[in-house]
Amino acid sequence: STTPVNVTVTGAAGQIGYALLFRIASGQLLGPDTPVKLRLLEIPQGVKAAVGIAMELDDCAFGLLAGIDIFDNPTDGFDGANVALLVGARPRTAGMERSDLLTANGGIFAPQGAAINAGAADDIRVLVVGNPANTNALVAAAHAPDVPAERFSAMTRLDHNRALHQLAKKAGADLSDVRRLTIWGNHSATQYPDIFHAEIAGRPAVEVVADQDWLESDFIPTVAKRGAAIIDARGASSAASAANAAIDHVHSWVNGTPEGDWTSAAIVSDGSYGVPAGLISSFPVTSTGGHWQIVPDLEIDAFSRDRIDASVAELIDERDAVSKLGLL
Ligand code: NAI
């Protein structure tokens, strides 16, 4: 269709925003036939930098970019939005307690959820990138009672992509031969990257790798702590890879996942795999027709069960904490 899709990006002037906006405008989010109108949402202090980014977007002369608007309030920022990428968040700073962090982010994601409820398009799809992503998504969804909960998701695709690379490298395989990896739980160090259902060129990944020690002492911690390793090396948190994962997530959601494979996304639980219904937790997911489905009926052994449960326990904790703060 030639009607532009309205894409709202919050935190547009941040480092992920800078890595994300040019790819959206070039057609990598929604495909080469879909024009986009960008709606950049920043806090007032971020507006000037967003204006500069808009100038650069103009200077790219992207044929698909049908317009750019800049806002400093969520009501206008989400008006008419079809896709919303919630990137801006309050980072944890030294000495900040977890409840302070959750309160500060509740102050961002509750009003954003309400603004989405009030003004977004009927087909709105929301991806929360800003941390703590799962719980921020839960708070936003709770303030958007008229939007189906399945339209809110949080990003574990970066973790998924990190795991794909680590597994392919270990196996000496092409990335395109690795399928059916899963990230379970929270986008945090408790996440569980699961290779027990994964395949490498059609063979069970655990048989190809045949190295339980690597799995436990290398793969799982490397994937789960990769964010910290990037900060250590780069002096700044993952930005281009996070933007890339956000593109992948929305692309999969809108255009579907390939036959015979799945991906990972944090979506609202229906109670599958012992994850309490209503939590936003990462699952193995497929997408068809613009809707995520949790991959059903996977066997979960005791090793995986313990790790899924530990990450889900952290999500329950975060949910209880925001609930106590009156944010749900
Ligand atoms: P950044 O600090 O460079 O940029 C954040 C931007 O958000 C700033 O420009 C700020 O002004 C803006 N902002 C803050 N509050 C806002 C609000 N209420 N409305 C609109 N804009 C607002 O941060 P960066 O590196 O771009 O990261 C953004 C978030 O993404 C962080 O929370 C980070 O932890 C998270 N992240 C998540 C990943 C994931 O895999 N889920 C991976 C990497 C980062």
From TrEMBL:
Enzyme Commission code: 1.1.1.37
Alphabetical list of CDD domains matching this protein: MDH_chloroplast-like (cd01338)
Positions annotated to bind substrate: 92, 98, 131, 162
Binding positions (NAD(+)): 11-17, 105, 112, 129-131
Presence of keyword NAD: yes
Classification via PROSITE patterns: MDH
Any single biological process term in GO: tricarboxylic acid cycle
Protein name in the entry: Malate dehydrogenase
Organism of this sequence: Pengzhenrongella sicca
Organism classification: Bacteria, Bacillati, Actinomycetota, Actinomycetes, Micrococcales
